[in-house]
From TrEMBL:
It comes from the Bacteria. PANTHER family: DUF521 DOMAIN PROTEIN (AFU_ORTHOLOGUE AFUA_6G00490) (PTHR36577:SF3). This is Phosphomevalonate dehydratase large subunit-like domain-containing protein. Keywords: Iron, Lyase.
Length: 431
């Protein structure tokens, strides 16, 4: 790798042994993937590791070494959601003991994050790019992010440039303020090798569409056509929220770090189908294909017909208008069924800034929601279900990311609303 004189001096140990190890880690990582130089990081950092799990003690030891050397991220950073919020989900005593055992380092870890450059107390969300959070990179910014749903949104919807890095590497890149130049940072790496033709009879469910794309193209870059007929051209908050959810599913059901949507995402608007590499493959998604994908999902509950304990909505975290839309839809269902409260408690996951703003702006509404069994929380539902006691619970979700990584059972939005108010599972919903 060709380094600047300043970077070479760091690699030679002239600014201390610890910073030398940081630079060496980043250089070796880059060389492994063919990078021949580093580029300055121009957007704010976001870290993927947000949980103080007892099993990653070597990671905490590394952070202590960085802190001891007086090192920090070049810019304040945001981080993925916390694993638990006891006053929102109210686990039982045994579950709480399990959480304390699994995430026993949480308080100490958050102190480490503050010393390393954590933006503020509200910075725990997987959707750091939302306007309420404020960590929104600009088009063309170089980043070193790791959170898969944030990576694919930053690359695709915002036009920033980041690879799907790993926890630890993200922090080390942000300490030196540079990232290895390879993969999705390069023009060549951002070209598409798949043409995905969406030919459904109506706007497809975002999570289901993303799942189909991700499982087909895996880590490749797809160029998606046909969505402008459903979403219009260009970007607006509703389209961005749709692409947020679709992209998260492509990244978790596959390993997509970037997609282009014709006439919608910025690079596709600028360059059109010239983004397609010669020899690209084609994948057609119609109603039959989406039904096939949906019906193929495995069922991981012990009893297929049991009544769910909870419904989880918001993985990745909901935007403010999505949060309010779900609340409105749930309350409409209650009025339609002449019911005062939902049969199944619904938890809506959103960023702490959005959660706190909603509760402070609408305290009376919030108390009504609680009485209706509608809850707002800012934790990570995936981390919640990593507690084996919670992971065994029958939980319904509309998130394909949560379905992929846990035992949660996926249903389409309209089915989720019916389950919430009736407590009954529809006949569809996976094998």
């Amino acid at each position: 790798m060709i380094l600047t004189p300043e970077d070479q001096a760091i690699l030679d140990g002239k600014q201390g042994e610890v910073l030398q190890k940081v630079m060496k880690s980043v250089v070796v990582y880059g060389e492994t993937f063919g990078a021949d130089h580093l580029v300055p990081i121009t957007g704010s950092p976001h870290m993927v590791t947000s949980f103080g799990a007892n099993t990653i003690q070597p990671y905490f030891d590394m952070l202590d070494e960085l802190i001891g050397a007086g090192l920090q991220s070049k810019e304040p950073f945001t981080v993925d959601p916390r694993p638990m919020e006891y006053d929102r989900l109210n686990p039982g005593l045994v579950e709480k003991l399990a959480f304390n055992l699994i995430f026993g380092k949480q308080a100490a870890y958050e102190q480490q994050l503050k010393k390393l450059g954590l933006k503020d107390e509200n910075s725990f969300t997987c959707t750091c790019y939302l306007p309420e959070v404020g960590n929104t990179p600009a088009k063309g910014d170089f980043l070193a992010w790791s959170e898969s749903s944030a990576v694919v949104f930053a690359n695709s919807v915002l036009g920033a440039r980041t690879n799907r890095n790993s926890g630890g590497i993200d922090l080390m890149c942000d300490i030196i303020g540079k990232a290895p130049y390879f993969g999705l940072l390069t023009d060549e790496g951002r070209q598409a090798t798949w043409l995905v033709e969406v030919k459904t009879s109506s706007k497809p469910n975002a999570q289901l569409l993303g799942s189909a794309i991700g499982m087909k193209v895996m880590e490749d870059v797809p160029y998606i056509v046909g969505m402008d007929g459903f979403l219009g051209t260009g970007l607006n908050p509703a389209t961005e929220a749709y692409l947020k959810d679709m992209g998260a599913a492509t990244a978790s059901n596959g390993a997509v770090g970037l997609y282009h949507v014709e006439n919608i995402t910025p690079e596709a608007v600028e360059s059109g189908r010239t983004l397609l590499k010669p020899g690209y493959q084609t994948y057609v998604i119609d109603d039959h294909e989406l039904a096939r994908v949906y019906q193929a999902y495995p069922l991981l509950w012990k009893n297929a017909n049991t009544q769910p304990d909870y419904i989880f909505v918001g993985c990745p975290h909901l935007a403010r208008h999505q949060l309010e839309s779900w609340i409105e839809q749930l309350e409409n269902q209650l009025r339609h069924h002449k019911a005062n409260r939902l049969k199944i408690p619904v938890y809506l996951f959103t960023a702490p800034d959005i959660q706190k703003a909603f509760i402070s702006e609408k305290p009376d509404t919030y108390q009504t929601l609680l009485s209706q069994q509608i809850h707002i929380t800012s934790i990570c539902p995936l981390m919640y279900m990593n507690n084996p006691l919670c992971g065994r619970k029958p939980i319904v979700t509309n998130s394909n990311k949560l379905r992929t990584y846990t035992t949660a059972r996926f249903y389409l939005d309209e089915d989720v609303l019916q389950i919430a108010v009736t407590g009954k599972l529809p006949s569809r919903g996976g094998k």
